[in-house]
Amino acid sequence: MTGKQVQLDVVEERKPELSAQLVAENIALQLEKRVAYRRAMKQTVTKVLRSGGKGIKVQCKGRLAGSEIARCEWYRRGRVPLHTLRAKIDFGFAEALTVYGKIGVQIWIYTGDVLGKEEKEIMEAAEQGAKSPVKVVEGV
User: Fold this and answer.
1) Rounded distance, CA 110 to CA 91, Å?
2) Between the CA of residue 58 and those of 21, 100, 113, 128, 134, what are the distances in Å?
3) Contact 69, 44 (CB under 8 A)
4) CA nearest to 44, candidates 60, 68, 65, 32
5) Are 113 and 88 in contact, with CB atoms under 8 Å apart?
6) In DSSP terms, which residues pair with 74 in a beta bridge?
7) Is the pTM of this model over 0.85?
8) How far apart are CA 87 and CA 140, in angstroms?
9) What are the pLDDT digits (tens) for 88-126?
10) b/e burial code for range 55-88 (CB count within 10 A of at least 16 → b)
């Protein structure tokens, strides 16, 4: 189709429960199979936290349970710091095509902080019980 040779590298997801896109698609698939949205959301939250996630936020928007007016429902467990740049947050989005219309599913999964080299050294030293390395700056 492109007229050029295409090379694909397939990478296996070690923990699919911590991949936000896969989790969102799973919930959307359950909604299409007419599973109750609250049940699907709550089960997902417990699975993610059990598999090692530090926090999760799940949001479903649309004509939930076939209601006349669209609405939004969400659950959050653990920490989901969306305002820090070093927080490692995975985001996923999927749409479920139901009889009543589309239902959007959004997932935020917090797996920990991304630390710099110096911060890692300080954290490792604190875990080992040693004093944290301190830089001495003279002058000022």
Assistant:
1) 9
2) 12, 21, 20, 36, 41
3) no
4) 60
5) yes
6) 59
7) no
8) 33
9) 999 999 999 999 999 999 999 999 988 777 777 777 877
10) bbbbbbbbbbeeeeeeeeeeeebeebeeeeeebe
